[in-house]
Every structure is written in C-alpha cells, then in structure tokens.
Amino acid sequence: MLKEIKMELAGLSLTGGFTYIAPPIEAGWFGGGRTPARVSTVDRITFATDTATATVRGPLSLNISATAAAGNSDYGWFGGGYTPNTGRSTVQRITYATDTATASVRGPLSAAKYQMAAAGNETNGWFGGGYVYALGPTSTVDRITYTTDTATASVRGPLSLTRFLPAAAGNTTDGWFGGGRVFSPADIVYSRVDRITYATDTATASVRGPLSGARYSLAAAGNTTDGWFGAGYNAGNSSTVGRITYATDTATASVRGPLSLARRYLAAAGNTTDGWFGGGYTTTPVSTVDRITYATDTATASVRGPLSSARYQLAAAGGIQ
Length: 321
Prior knowledge:
Elements: H1 2-9, E1 26-31, E2 42-46, E3 55-57, E4 68-71, E5 75-79, E6 82-83, E7 86-87, E8 91-95, E9 104-106, E10 113-114, E11 117-120, E12 124-128, E13 131-132, E14 136-137, E15 141-145, E16 154-156, E17 167-170, E18 174-178, E19 181-182, E20 188-189, E21 193-197, E22 206-208, E23 219-222, E24 226-233, E25 237-245, E26 254-256, E27 267-270, E28 274-278, E29 289-293, E30 302-304, E31 315-320
Antiparallel strand pairs: 1-2, 1-31, 2-3, 4-5, 5-8, 6-7, 8-9, 10-13, 11-12, 12-15, 13-14, 15-16, 17-18, 18-21, 19-20, 21-22, 23-24, 24-25, 25-26, 27-28, 28-29, 29-30
C-alpha cells in the first residue's frame, strides 16, 4: 500500500481505484496596477516555470492601483487601493484554485486607504500604514481574519509612526514593515523597520532595523527566517536589496542583491527559497520580474518573467494552487 501511494504521488498510472492527484503548484499572483491606465489584471507567476510570460488570471473586481496584498496557501487578499479621485476600503479575495474567476469582494478595511503594506500568516493578514483619502498618512494596522473576511477589518497596531508607501514581509509569528514616507510637517523618507508581533497586535509596533537606507515605494518578500526589501525611491530609483534577519532584527539591514534595474512601485511574492519582484516604474512602467535566490542573495537578481504588461503600483500574494 505504501508503495502504491508513493507511486500515485509521483504521478504514475495506477490501477485498483486510485485517483491521480496533481502535485501542488507554487505561484505568485500580481494584481492591479497602472499601465498608466489602472487595470484589474491578475498575472500568475508559476515559480517552477518563471521564465515564461506570466499567465493572465483574475481579474480583480475593479481597476485599481496602490493596493496591498497578503495571503496563505489557498487565498490572496488584496486590500484598499486607489481609483480616480478616491481611496478604497474594498478587500478582494483571490481563490488560487479557481483564479480565472473575478475576485470575491470581502472586507472592508476600517477606512478607504492606499499605498500601505501587508504581511500575514495562515490565519490572518495585517495591513499597515498607508494614506487615507482626503485625510493624509496613517499608522493604523488593520487585521483581516481570513475565516471571517466579510466583516470590517479589526483595527490593531499602530505602527510606530504615520507613513505611507512602506513594504512588509513576515513569517508565522511576526511582520516587519520597512521604509515609507510622510509629507508633513516635512517631506521625510524613512529607513525605520517596525515589527508587528501577531500575538500582541494591539500594542504599538516595536521599532527594529533600520534598512540600509531611507526609501519608499519598495517591495518585500521573505521566508521563515529573513525578509528581503528591494528597490524603492529616495532622490532617485534604487536597485538595493536589504536583508532583514528576523532573529537579529535590531541590526541595520544587510545589503544584498541588487535587482537587475533601479525602480520603484513594484510588488513581490515568494516561497521558502526565492522571492520574485515584479513590475515597477523607472522612467516608464516595466514588466520585468527579478528572482532573488535567498541562498545566494549577494548576486544580481536573475531576470525572469515578464509580466503580461508593463505596470506599476501593483500588489502580490503567493501560495499553492
């Protein structure tokens, strides 16, 4: 019996009533953004075949940019965002196994906001910072509980300071929110990294880091031990990748990478071994996907992809289809 089960999992033809079960496919879903027109496109990057053009899935339920996304192994939640002249509190859920359907509207977030970041584990997603339309930057952290995701998100946090355009990566117990910007009382760009401990998420986030340089409009992907914060903007586009080692997160982030080109407004998704940084803006939108291999993260990122179109201000979540 054990031999038959192993044969089945290997994809061999069997007799005796067994049903072939296809192995899980790890992938990243990149949703929304601007081309410069706002789009609802969802591109799926299949990690094992990441040199092919991304497969168009979705779409999201509306054309939107400046969203944030968190997910588990089965779903991705795309929260907030911007459509002309207004922010959104909408949360859209992508079901990975049926990703050709229009995303399911969930949520909402506690306020209409955009340009935030998100991290999560198998049960919850935390959406932090951002810009509340007509009010300004916020330090609010909203928690989406996946099993009750039609309810208004629970307000947690806050982050240690008000900011928008940060990036976030996390593991099963904590999320790290790095970088960002405010306009008032002065135009300030941050290198600060805030750690949200999920089990005590009503407390103000713990200040960690910092990143190796102050920047915003960056993206992040990570595994259980480290988070990689790539690209961004501060007086110019950056290709820098900063690695946060979670166990020693009070140290300045280690400079790794770089990405294959300097850019901002990109998105990232990853698995346990690699992170994929897709899209973004140089002087025009780009469709480039860079792969960071975590074990060799001092090399220049490997160019993969591309996305199905050049776009920026998108978001990404990853899991298993």
